Amino acid sequence: MKFTQRLSLRVRLTLIFLILASVTWLLSSFVAWKNNG
Q1: For residue 29, which of 2, 3, 13, 20 sits 20 to 30 Å off, Cα-Cα?
Q2: Membrane spanning segments where (predicted)?
Q3: pTM of the model
């Protein structure tokens, strides 16, 4: 039980990190595209 809880927490943190990285990348790409346009 403890192992699954720790695993789910790790998965949750990984998902949050991936989402934050994707949002940051999209924002930077959008800003660069707007500046180029």
Answers
A1: 13
A2: 12-33
A3: 0.67
